[in-house]
Amino acid sequence: MSVKWEFSAGGVVFKEDQDQIYILLIKNKDRYGFPKGNIERTEKREDAAVREVKEETGVDAEVLDYLGNVEYWYRSGVDTIHKFVYYYLMKYVGGELNPQKEEIESAEWVPINQVEEKLSFDKDKKIFSLAVKKLKQLSKVNA
Hints:
- By secondary structure, the chain is of the alpha+beta class.
- The protein has a single domain, classed as Nucleoside Triphosphate Pyrophosphohydrolase (Alpha-Beta Complex).
- It has three helices and seven strands, in the order ββββαβββαα.
- Strands 1, 2, 3, 4, 5, 6 and 7 form a seven-stranded mixed sheet that branches.
- The longest helix is centred in the C-terminal third of the chain and has 16 residues, at about 120-135.
- The termini are far apart.
- The mean pLDDT is about 95.
- InterPro entries: Nudix_hydrolase (IPR020476), NUDIX_hydrolase-like_dom_sf (IPR015797), NUDIX_hydrolase_CS (IPR020084), NUDIX_hydrolase_dom (IPR000086), Nudix_hydrolase_domain (IPR051325).
């Protein structure tokens, strides 16, 4: 058995529409989460997050702030993978939803008050809670 390390970056992307805040979620195997993907060797984490959001969802977003990271373990064949995912708060700047069918089932804009109940993993809920705190600091969400 060998242990391999993986490093990914992703984003909690928000957009404002008619006084409502929406958060971009992806769905894969009936699990909801945030768009993310592997960081290339020469790439900065922030750049990887922007690229992966675009690749997986078709959406252009800009990084506003770092939210934190999560780590977890999983198995891939005979390997044990120790994965780190670095998340950023990101603002929608353009593009249409166009899910990358090879990677995810769907991408959707979810009203902010429905996001936590849709998220499948506690680690994602923790990142979302940090994102909401940052949005409150930016006066995007009522306290």
